[in-house]
Structures are given as structure tokens and as C-alpha cells.
């Protein structure tokens, strides 16, 4: 499947972009926290579900520390009621910066935290009830209604991919070059699935997209808009595992393994290359140029072309 990442200034703007993507033939949209300005993404996602008919919707991602498992399950059911069978929840622990500064919580044992949330949220949605005592969360709850909505999770290093393979309905990458996903992430996902004696779940890859035929311009956009990940230790470790040193920023080789650019046809072919390499789904994440609106529209068109 070929999806797109939405970035809007408000809830109504977000819904309008989702409607535009559906009209152009895009198969799926994804949204991170903050993708509708200051509005919370879960009710905005419900509004988008209510005002569309076919397009698949997903959060990539909502921080686990921002909600209880019960709140997640209840919000998921609200979105599901407006768009039956079209919604996928993506959760992740985020980083210490967000957890400690935004939520005032202690960032400890993030993989354990994610494991507990995957178990409790998925159990609530599949069985309608849960009884659990853990390190980060303890609860006994019964939902009035439940539905097996897919619960996916963000992944960066091998432990999180193994966890997704073991427990999640999919793994969602971010800022990971294709070499890393094929040589390290995908095998880790499969290892976790084998441990749980089940088939490997989907690997959904975020792919930065620059709608320009000037390759140097595409690299410059990536450095300007995504450069702040290079100093982050977790991302440095991921890049190093793929054979890229980001001490002095992103090299051309790294960006050529990460960013897809060109005409609509060239971008569609580039996205297809990621699927051919083993990704179950790609999320085209537009890198803005001078005309931001055109960049998003052209990226939507490229994703729709790839789907056709």
C-alpha cells in the first residue's frame, strides 16, 4: 500500500487534505502528533473518518505516555465507529525530551512501557476486557464495545523491531534509510515474529519525498527539514548500524538511500522500489519547497500513481 503523511494547520485543514488525498486516489493517510496544529489528533481523525468513504487512516504515532491504555481503546473505538475497518492506531514511547518536558513523566524502560501498552490496548480491542499488573501500568477494565483494530508501533533499533514482530500488528519506521530497513530492521521484525511463532507483521516505512528534479535541492531540503535528528543518540546509532556516520551531518550517500525525489512518475517508481525491497507499505512524507501546497499535492499524486 502507498500512503501519504498529512501536515495541517488545524483540524478542518487536516480533514480537507484527507479529502483531497482520497479524491486523488491515495490509498492511505498517516498523521503524527501535531499534524493538525494545536488540535488533538484522535478526535480530528474521527472527523476525517466521518467525512471520507474509502481512504485508510492511521496515526504514526501517538505517544504512549500521553494516554492510559483505556483512553487509547475508547478513542480508537470512537474513530472506528465513524470509519469501520479503515483505521489503524500507531503508538510509540517517543523520546525522553517529550516525555519529561511535555508530560512531566519519568522516561524509564521505554521498551517495557511499549510492551505493556501493546498488550493492554490490543487485549481491550480484541477481547473487550483486560486484567493486567505491570511496571508502568496496572488496570482492570471492560469496554462496552470492542473491535480488532490494528495496533502498530514505532520502531527504530533492533529491540523495538523484535518487539513489534512479537506483539504488534505492524512496525512503523522513521528516518531510516532503505539499507537499514532491509538489512537490520526487517530481519529483527522476523526474529520477533518467529519467537512468538506467528507471521511477521507489516513493516510500514516513512519515506521523505521531494518533488523536484534537482537532486541537490532534494538533499538540501532534507538537511534543512530533517537535520535535527543527526545529533540524537538513538538516531546516530541507527545510522551507524547502516554504515553512515552523521557526526558532521547527513552525507549525500545517506540521503540518496533515504530520500525519493523527481517527477511524479520518478517518485512513484522510487516508492515502488521500497516495496520491492520488502516494505509492506510506504508513507510518502513531503519535504516542502517554496510552494508548499503544490509539494503536498504532487506528493499525493505520486503516491496515487504508485498505487495504480
Task: Describe this structure in a few short sentences.
The chain is α/β, with parallel strands linked by helices and 308 residues long.
Written overview of the protein:
The chain has 308 residues and is α/β, with parallel strands linked by helices. It has a single domain (2-307), classed as TIM Barrel, CATH 3.20.20.30. Helix content is 47%, strand content 18%. The protein is built from 12 helices and 13 strands. It has helices at residues 11-24, 41-50, 69-82, 96-102, 110-127, 158-167, 178-195, 215-226, 233-241, 252-256, 264-276, 292-307; strands at residues 2-5, 28-31, 35-38, 56-59, 62-63, 87-92, 129-133, 138-142, 151-154, 171-172, 203-210, 260-261, 281-286. It has an 8-stranded parallel β-barrel with strand order 1-2-4-6-9-10-11-13, surrounded by 9 helices. It has a two-stranded antiparallel ribbon with strand order 7-8. Helix 6 packs across helix 7 (178-195). The protein is globular. It starts with a strand and ends with a helix. The model has no long low-confidence stretch (mean pLDDT 95).
Largest sheet: 8 strands, parallel, barrel
Helical fraction: 40-55%
| Strand content range | 15-25%
Q: Please count the helical segments.
A: 12
What coarse outline follows from CA principal-axis ratios?
A: globular
Radius of gyration (CA) equals: 19 Å
Structural class of the secondary elements? Answer: alpha/beta
Q: What name is given to the CATH topology?
A: TIM Barrel
* Helix and strand sequence: EHEEHEEHEHHEEEHEHEHHHEHEH
Distance between the termini: 10 Å
The residue-averaged pLDDT reads 95
Give the strand order, joined by hyphens, for the main sheet. Answer: 1-2-4-6-9-10-11-13
Number of strands: 13
CATH level 1 class label: Alpha Beta
How many separate domains make up the residues? 1
CATH superfamily: Luciferase-like domain
Give the name of the CATH architecture. Answer: Alpha-Beta Barrel
Amino acid at each position: 500500500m502507498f500512503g501519504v503523511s498529512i501536515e495541517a494547520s488545524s483540524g478542518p485543514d487536516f480533514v480537507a487534505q484527507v479529502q483531497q488525498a482520497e479524491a486523488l486516489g491515495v490509498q492511505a493517510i498517516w498523521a503524527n502528533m501535531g499534524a493538525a496544529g494545536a488540535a488533538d489528533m484522535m478526535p480530528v481523525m474521527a472527523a476525517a473518518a466521518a467525512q471520507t468513504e474509502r481512504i485508510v487512516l492511521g496515526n504514526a504515532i501517538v505517544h504512549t505516555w500521553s494516554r492510559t491504555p483505556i483512553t487509547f481503546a475508547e478513542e480508537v473505538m470512537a474513530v472506528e465507529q465513524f470509519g469501520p475497518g479503515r483505521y489503524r492506531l500507531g503508538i510509540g514511547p517517543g523520546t525522553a525530551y517529550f516525555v519529561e518536558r511535555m508530560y512531566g513523566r519519568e522516561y524509564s524502560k521505554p521498551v517495557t512501557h511499549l510492551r505493556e501498552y501493546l498488550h493492554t490496548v490490543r487485549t481491550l480491542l480484541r477481547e473487550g476486557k483486560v486484567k493486567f499488573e505491570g511496571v508502568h501500568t496496572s488496570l482492570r477494565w471492560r469496554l462496552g464495545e470492542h473491535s480488532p483494530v490494528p495496533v502498530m508501533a514505532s520502531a527504530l533499533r533492533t529491540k523495538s523491531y523484535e518487539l513489534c514482530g512479537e506483539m504488534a500488528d505492524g512496525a512503523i519506521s522513521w528516518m531510516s534509510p532503505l539499507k537499514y530497513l532491509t538489512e537490520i530492521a526487517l530481519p529483527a521484525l522476523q526474529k520477533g515474529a518467529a519467537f512468538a511463532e506467528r507471521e511477521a507483521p507489516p513493516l510500514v516505512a516513512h519515506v521523505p519525498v521531494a518533488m523536484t528534479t534537482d537532486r541537490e535541492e532534494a538533499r538540501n531540503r532534507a538537511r534543512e527539514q530533517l537535520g535535527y535528528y543527526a545529533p540524537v543518540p538513538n538516531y546516530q546509532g541507527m545510522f551507524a548500524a547502516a554504515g553512515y556516520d552523521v557526526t558532521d551531518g547527513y552525507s549525500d550517500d545517506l540521503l540518496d538511500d533515504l530520500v525519493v525525489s523527481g517527477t511524479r512518475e520518478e517518485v512513484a517508481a522510487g516508492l515502488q522500489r521500497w516495496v520491492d525491497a520488502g516494505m509492506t507499505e510506504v508513507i510518502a512524507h513531503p519535504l516542502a519547497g517554496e510552494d508548499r501546497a503544490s509539494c503536498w499535492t504532487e506528493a499525493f499524486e505520486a503516491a496515487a500513481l504508485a498505487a495504480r
